[in-house]
User: Which sequence fits this backbone?
């Protein structure tokens, strides 16, 4: 598989990282569509790797989305405007922007209701069959490009995407100055959720994980309490006790950023009557969980899918210093064949790699 | 069997207050029930109508319901209405002779949940007929006056007793925000599914589809106003096909599903059939652990809303009955007297399910 290119078309041929087969990425030409009146052309400067990107690399699928032909990978990105379409008023070449990946239809009932993240016609970077943005340049709707203030770097701009997941979850769960928060999982999503919860005013945040290193990162990022837990579902009751003790108060909202039977069981058991459990992490489809005792305590399960209308708030949080995402960027790579391969191996390895970032 | 009580003659004689006591598995006996003294904020009520709930049957058959275990003799029953016989010294809102419906649960009114208005979740809740609290299948009971709601002249005592199950449906419709925009799917056409149907209609739901395994119950649902009925199986393999049938019959998207049963199959159906951004209310509390396609539902931002009993529902239930927006009378399918034979037959009938929807005592 793979596409050949014509090397003398322009001064510079647009190149991208293509997923061409299982575990196989190749930097190859990426021909851009023509610029529509409401589009902009963006030179990519910073692109982060997401767990879903790794999943596609390793398995060529993610839930029901299957990679059937070569696809450009990557979607967490920021860059500099190179060219604007004829109708674009709010951006000019040279502007530094963060990109919201998903293009919804704007016609269906869900879009009209503002819940555009659920649009059945959503075209999302690097969700097959839509190409991603790990490329020199991409073309994108201008209204999905958000200008970055001077004190927000392009890497921080790229971090707006994962941060958006945390922000959206905190909104759906109504996190505020009265909600004590428990976060299951201290990976990239658990950590951005923790940062968002703090920014939303959560008074007390406890985070749990199986990995010591990730827990210490969480502590450095401001968790009030960290607890090491096991992968053994028999340990749930004991862990719930430890969690409640560490919280020193009731758990009002729990974010399950892992999405396994054990983590959901812990979440449902640890959350107080009338509280909420947000299922953010997507582990397995079928889950076996004590749903009924939770329902009998009116503990609601809130579903989270990506985000909507979060970029302005993310940018403001970063600009004002309410949120500092920089510590999450643990590894950096340039945009070459060798480095692309190394970067994905590093990200796939987990452990001390939180966010792996490309600088282009 | 747990400790037997002294045998006395069955029907109330003179002034001895009698009640239906659960003494052991499938063993109920009418025996004296000594009432506590009347507090300043209490009233004494002559019970006139009392319905049997699935939880009463569960206690009857197994001496337990979830984590509530019957450890000593307990008076059964909690869905009731009656006539005020005596009022405590501080009671202003009620007087002797008033016809009232009773809200069973006495919460502490001090904890943070109570103060937040979510008193149904109070950990100190004393709920009639839930061990160790005695219920109200008795000649008389003593109850806080603020949990007794006066019935208008055009609402019968039986309808008053029906306010309790109806409250479950009303509370669920509130939590799920049922309104003129919400198309509703109801799984299970038993007493709870049916009161949920009635409540959803009263809340303005434009289209209601109800499913069950039992034809009789489905036909009752159709008579009560369901737009469509669908017969379903108990086989979890049929979920995919049934979801398609249900969606076709609804025509529009399903905004809210009420699972009034609570099995893997019913929750799986609900989670799959509900449209993106919708809600699934888990009302039926059948099983502890459920194995369900939770993730594929949550990635469509379907929320699972838990329902436990009700709160602040009596005034609305009474209003809906009084104005005729809801008619609960068709749900009362069997009536029994308060006698030893009566209570035994009544419980057997209720436990038998089928065409027994609500079994009511007239006292």
Assistant:
């Amino acid at each position: 598989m793979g596409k050949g290119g014509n090397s003398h078309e322009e001064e510079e041929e647009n190149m991208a990282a293509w997923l061409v087969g299982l575990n196989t990425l190749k930097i190859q030409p990426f021909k851009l569509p023509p610029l529509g009146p409401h589009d902009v052309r963006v030179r990519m400067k910073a692109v982060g790797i997401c767990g879903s990107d790794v999943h596609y690399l390793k398995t060529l699928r993610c839930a029901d989305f299957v990679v059937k032909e070569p696809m450009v990978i990557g979607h967490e990105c920021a860059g500099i405007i190179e060219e604007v379409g004829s109708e674009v008023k709010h951006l000019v070449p040279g502007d530094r922007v963060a990109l919201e990946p998903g293009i919804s239809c704007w016609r269906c009932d869900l879009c009209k209701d503002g819940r555009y993240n659920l649009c059945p016609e959503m075209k999302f970077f690097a969700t097959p069959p839509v190409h991603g943005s790990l490329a020199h340049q991409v073309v994108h709707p201008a209204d999905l490009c958000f200008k970055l203030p001077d004190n927000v770097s392009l890497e921080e701009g790229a971090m707006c995407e994962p941060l958006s997941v945390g922000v959206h979850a905190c909104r759906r769960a109504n996190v505020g100055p009265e909600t004590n928060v428990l976060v299951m999982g201290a990976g990239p999503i658990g950590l951005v959720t923790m940062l968002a919860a703090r920014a939303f005013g959560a008074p007390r945040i406890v985070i749990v994980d199986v990995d010591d290193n990730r827990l210490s990162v969480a502590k450095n990022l401001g968790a009030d309490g960290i607890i090491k837990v096991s992968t053994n579902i028999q340990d749930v009751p004991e862990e719930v006790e430890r969690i409640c003790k560490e919280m020193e108060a009731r758990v009002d909202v729990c974010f399950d950023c892992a999405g396994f039977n054990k983590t959901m069981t812990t979440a449902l058991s640890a959350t107080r009557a009338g509280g909420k459990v947000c299922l953010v992490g997507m582990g397995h489809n079928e889950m076996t969980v004590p749903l009924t005792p939770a329902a009998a305590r009116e503990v609601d399960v809130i579903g989270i899918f990506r985000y909507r209308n979060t970029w302005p708030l993310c940018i403001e949080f970063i600009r004002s210093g309410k949120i500092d995402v920089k510590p999450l960027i643990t590894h950096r790579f340039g945009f070459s064949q060798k480095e692309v391969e190394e970067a994905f191996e590093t990200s796939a390895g987990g452990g001390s790699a939180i966010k792996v970032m490309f600088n282009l | 069997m747990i400790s037997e009580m002294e045998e006395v003659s069955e029907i109330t004689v003179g002034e001895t207050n009698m009640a239906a006591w659960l003494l052991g598995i499938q063993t109920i006996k009418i025996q004296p029930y000594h009432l506590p003294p009347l507090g300043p904020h209490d009233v004494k009520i002559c019970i006139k109508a009392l319905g049997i709930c699935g939880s009463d049957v569960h206690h009857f058959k197994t001496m337990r319901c979830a984590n509530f275990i019957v450890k000593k003799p307990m008076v059964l029953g909690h869905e009731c209405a009656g006539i005020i016989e005596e009022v405590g010294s501080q009671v202003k809102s009620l007087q002797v002779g008033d016809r009232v419906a009773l809200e069973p649960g006495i919460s502490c009114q001090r904890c943070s949940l109570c103060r937040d208005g979510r008193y149904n979740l109070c950990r100190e809740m004393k709920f009639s007929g839930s061990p160790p609290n005695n219920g109200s299948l008795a000649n008389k009971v003593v109850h806080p006056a603020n949990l007794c709601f006066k019935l208008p002249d055009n609402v019968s005592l039986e309808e008053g007793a029906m306010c309790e199950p109806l409250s479950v449906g009303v509370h669920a419709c509130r939590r799920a925000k049922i309104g003129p925009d919400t198309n509703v799917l109801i799984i299970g056409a038993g007493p709870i599914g049916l009161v949920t149907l009635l409540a959803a209609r009263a809340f303005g739901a434009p289209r209601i589809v109800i499913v069950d395994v039992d034809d009789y119950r489905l036909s009752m649902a159709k008579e009560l106003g369901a737009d469509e009925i669908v017969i379903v199986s108990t086989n979890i393999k049929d979920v995919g096909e049934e979801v398609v049938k249900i969606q076709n019959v609804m025509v529009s998207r399903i905004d809210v599903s009420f699972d009034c049963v609570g099995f893997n199959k019913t929750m799986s159906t609900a989670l799959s059939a509900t449209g993106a951004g919708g809600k699934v209310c888990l009302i039926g509390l059948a099983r502890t652990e459920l194995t369900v396609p939770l993730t594929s539902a949550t990635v469509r931002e379907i929320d699972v809303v838990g329902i436990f009993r009700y709160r602040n529902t009596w005034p609305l239930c009474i209003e809906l009955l009084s104005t005729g927006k809801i008619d609960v009378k068709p749900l009362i399918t069997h009536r029994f007297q308060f006698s030893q034979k009566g209570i035994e037959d009544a419980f057997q009938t209720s436990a038998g399910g089928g065409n027994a929807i609500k079994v009511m005592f007239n006292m």
User: Anything to note?
Assistant: Confidence is low (pLDDT under 50) at residues 1-10 of chain A. Residues 154-172 of chain A form the longest helix (19 residues). Chain A touches chain B through 37 residues (CB under 8 Å). The CA atoms of residues 84 and 92 of chain A lie 6 Å apart.
